[in-house]
């Protein structure tokens, strides 16, 4: 994608027109082809041991010692999940808003006790630079804008927490990572499941060997995309979203397969399909893909913008299985574990794990990393890996050939 400046993003936002392009062709699984793309690091062949769940940062800091966040983009996710989560934080606090909608920003600022001088437009990064109470900019805008907002925040001397997907191409992701390094600032991606207790327990179960050898993982994320919802309008525009269900929610299936195994895939097959429906003029509806991992685990994953809500995964091991359904919801996770019981019976457990705000834990983790100058658990490189795999999934679906990951 060609670079978009912040002002070009704003112009394009106003000029959104329905220029239908053909949907990507459906792929057919086929024979192996030449390797495409490569991870900068060789895949780690061993299952990585699970790091302990992000500890609650101790102690809860007084407001003036907390790390100050500016929220950039006041849409659905920012206003309904992230801003309210600051009340559960121990080390992070919201001190500024950056928005293209001044009236909305003023109203929200009043709700969170943010004063007028701490409200910024997208063109006011120079003024933001002088605001020393802001240490982190949290980018929560349409995918194709992540790159330039991130670069602008680095230029203003701030650390960046950026929503998933990192960007709309791996080259944009690489640019963001390089810019963070050059500015000596942290880049973290908002992979909230890495901070969510049920997902952390599933990672532990998979990597500890409790389930035995893991044969297969299935991970599915789907919903009906609804163009009457403003938050879904840009999601069906290729220029803003970068792709369809895969980059928006399929990324949860992909990332889960990677965090459950602790491995990087070596081979990818994929198939993509879209019904004849105006919602899918520019972006795909449904993607199915298979990842082969070095240990032999196969992950069968899917995503769809044309399904009733689903966000779940299932792991089948030689000594047990687990199902997390929903797996990546905001709350109300439900875990079932099957283990060998008496005789041929499978013993089913439904562990009660205390729900915690994954949003607050994610914000506090970023704050802690800034305070201690530590690499976040989900750095830019994690986002870049997923971006590269998603490009390979599209390529495998387009060509009908499997992709060997070097
Ligand atoms: P929304 O459409 O609700 O919000 C996006 C906001 O971005 C807008 O309200 C607007 O804020 C700002 N914006 C800046 N440039 C543009 C533009 N060109 N077009 C439209 N809006 C623009 O989207 P979501 O909140 O659902 O998603 C935002 C990001 O967050 C996406 O990257 C998405 O993938 C991610 N997300 C992550 C989730 C998670 O669970 N981790 C869940 C949902 C979304 P303003 O009016 O203030 O300028």
Task: Give keywords.
406 residues, single chain, 32% helix, 15 strands, binds NADPH dihydro-nicotinamide-adenine-dinucleotide phosphate
Structure description:
- The protein has 406 residues and is of the alpha/beta class.
- Helix content is 32%, strand content 21%.
- It is built from twelve helices and 15 strands.
- It has helices at 6-14, 76-85, 102-111, 125-129, 146-155, 170-183, 197-208, 230-233, 238-241, 245-261, 358-372, 380-399; strands at residues 67-72, 92-98, 119-120, 136-139, 159-162, 187-189, 214-224, 267-273, 286-292, 298-304, 306-317, 320-324, 335-340, 346-349, 403-404.
- Strands 14-13-12-11-7-10-9-8-15 form a nine-stranded mixed β-sheet. The chain has a six-stranded parallel β-sheet with strand order 3-2-1-4-5-6, sandwiched between helices.
- Helix 10 (245-261) crosses helix 12 (380-399).
- Bound molecules: NADPH dihydro-nicotinamide-adenine-dinucleotide phosphate.
Overall geometry comes to globular
Q: If you average the pLDDT, what whole number results? A: 88
Radius of gyration: 21 Å
Measured between the Cα atoms of the first and last residue, the distance is 24 Å
Within the largest sheet, what's the order of strands? 14-13-12-11-7-10-9-8-15
- Give the strand tally: 15
Count the DSSP helices: 12
Q: Per DSSP, what share of the residues sits in E-state strands of 2 or more residues?
A: 15-25%
The helix fraction, in percent, is 25-40%
What ranges have pLDDT less than 50 throughout 5 or more consecutive residues? 1-46
List the ligand species. NADPH dihydro-nicotinamide-adenine-dinucleotide phosphate
* H-E order: HEHEHEHEHEHEHEHHHEEEEEEEHHE
Largest sheet: 9 strands, mixed
């Amino acid at each position: 994608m060609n670079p978009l400046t912040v002002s070009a993003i704003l112009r394009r936002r106003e000029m959104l027109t329905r220029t239908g392009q053909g949907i990507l062709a459906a792929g057919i699984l086929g024979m192996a082809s030449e390797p495409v793309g490569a991870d900068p690091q060789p895949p780690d062949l061993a299952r990585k041991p699970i790091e302990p769940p992000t500890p609650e940062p101790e102690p809860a800091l007084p407001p003036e010692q907390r790390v100050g966040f500016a929220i950039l983009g006041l849409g659905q996710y920012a206003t309904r999940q992230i801003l309210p989560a600051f009340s559960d934080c121990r080390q992070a606090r919201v001190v500024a808003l950056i928005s293209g909608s001044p009236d909305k920003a003023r109203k929200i600022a009043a709700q969170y006790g943010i004063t007028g001088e701490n409200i910024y437009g997208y063109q006011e990064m120079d003024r933001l630079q002088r605001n020393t109470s802001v240490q982190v900019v949290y980018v929560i805008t349409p995918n194709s804008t992540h790159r330039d907002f991130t670069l602008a925040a680095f230029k203003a001397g701030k650390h960046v927490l950026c929503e998933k997907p990192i960007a709309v191409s791996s080259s944009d992701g690489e640019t963001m990572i390089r810019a963070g390094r050059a500015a000596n600032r942290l880049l973290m991606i908002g992979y909230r499941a890495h901070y969510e207790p049920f997902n952390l327990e599933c990672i532990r179960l998979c990597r500890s060997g409790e389930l035995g050898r893991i044969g297969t993982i299935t991970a599915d994320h789907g919903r009906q995309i609804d163009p009457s919802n403003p938050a879904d309008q840009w999601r069906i525009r290729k220029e803003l979203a970068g792709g369809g269900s895969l980059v928006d929610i399929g990324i949860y299936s992909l990332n889960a397969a990677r965090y459950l195994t602790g491995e990087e895939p070596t081979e990818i097959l994929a198939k993509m399909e879209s019904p004849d429906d105006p919602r899918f003029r520019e972006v795909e509806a449904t993607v199915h893909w298979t990842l082969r991992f070095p240990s032999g685990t196969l992950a069968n994953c899917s995503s769809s913008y044309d399904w009733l809500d689903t966000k779940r995964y299932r792991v089948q091991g030689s000594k047990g299985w687990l199902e997390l359904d929903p797996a990546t919801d905001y709350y109300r996770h439900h875990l079932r574990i099957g283990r060998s019981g008496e005789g041929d019976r499978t013993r089913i457990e439904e562990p009660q794990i205390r729900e915690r705000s994954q949003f607050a834990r994610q914000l506090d983790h970023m704050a802690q990393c800034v305070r201690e100058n530590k690499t976040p658990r989900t750095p830019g490189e994690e986002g870049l890996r997923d971006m590269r795999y998603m490009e390979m999934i599209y390529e495998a679906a387009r060509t009908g050939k499997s992709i060997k990951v070097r």
